[in-house]
Amino acid sequence: xxxxxxxxxGYADFDAALAPLAAMAPELVLVFGACAYFAAPELSAAxxxxxxxxxxxxxxxxxxxxxxxxxxDSCVVTAIAFEHTTVAIADAIICDMAxxxxxxxxxxxxxxxxxxxxxxxxxxxxxxxxxxxxxxLQANLPPxxxxxxxxxxxxxxxxxxxxxxxxxxxxxxxxxxxxxxxxIRLGYGSHAGWEAFGPARKVTRSVGNVLYxxxxxRALDIYKLYLGDHARDLPxxxxxxxxxxxxxxxxxxxxxxxxxxxxxxxxxxxxxGDILADGYLKLMHSSTNRLIDGAETAARGVEPHADxxxxxxxxxxxxxxxxxxxxxxxxxxxxxxxxxxxxxPCIAGFYxxxxxxxxxxHGACQLHNQTMTVTVLSEA
Length: 380
Description:
Blueprint: E1 2-8, H1 14-22, E2 28-33, H2 36-39, H3 42-50, E3 55-60, E4 64-66, E5 69-71, E6 75-81, E7 86-93, H4 100-110, E8 116-123, H5 130-138, E9 146-151, E10 163-165, E11 168-170, E12 173-180, E13 184-191, E14 195-207, E15 210-214, E16 217-218, H6 219-227, E17 243-246, E18 252-257, E19 259-263, E20 268-271, E21 280-285, H7 288-300, E22 309-319, H8 320-326, H9 331-340, E23 346-352, E24 354-358, E25 365-368, E26 372-379
Parallel strand pairs: 2-3, 8-9, 22-23
Antiparallel strand pairs: 1-6, 2-6, 3-10, 4-5, 4-23, 7-12, 8-12, 9-24, 10-11, 13-26, 14-15, 14-21, 15-16, 15-20, 17-18, 17-21, 19-20, 22-26, 24-25
């Protein structure tokens, strides 16, 4: 396995910039960039011209990760040439939030399943129920197939996000990359680093990922009570104060939910994924140091493979909310992960509206918010 990466910092002469990647004849090309790179057709067309034999996939971001750096308004292109692994791509158009689970089912059905080992999925970052999407996908994949990835972002605006796939760049399509064969090796890590404050609040009314009631009161009213002056900036300020879901027995789930939208008339909060209908929610907050510690924990969770040969690629998907909390120190969480990963892998990734990861070895894939997730690819 060979990996090569380049960073675009402008919008002119894409063909010349991409030409060095053509020589390695990659099977897979991942593209993470600012919305402007996807809103116009020039980059997508140049990728097809320069890399006609590659599977090309990517998404818009709230910040691009390359090496130990975090970039804004750039585009990171990472090319992977496999020795033994084959790659396929599938997509599904998502009609609206209610279509999320069905879109996941259609996506799985469109992906060839013979020999499938793992899926890396990129979804739209608005008008979507990420947990329902994953549930639909996983229910239609062969047993043992792992799923990771993330939801596209638009710099924290939550208005229009983009994915890149076989249809080119679109704002309504979910993309799945399938990795096939016995030689692919994957390691996963995922952790948050947030701290609870205030009492656990009982979910008294919810439908899917829309929260209407907490402790018998309107959910939005309870949430605003805790946010104080920050409530003026909703829904954007919700990135700084996610919920952690607790079970009916008050057990921690290690799954967080970010607020995507508020409805003043209904008094409701739309979250990025489903809510435990009989569970509890606790408000969370964090600091830069706690988030960096969480990123280190995610990196430590990645199990190295003794038989890995050639280059390795680490795909980091972290939350836009973490980026807002850390501000100018955001690169420190990427540096922390890079310093702990064995084998000095090439690093690519993005800041997202939702992270798709596995919290423990061989555990179930889940939608996360406010979490650093790590997927390390190598070949035996």
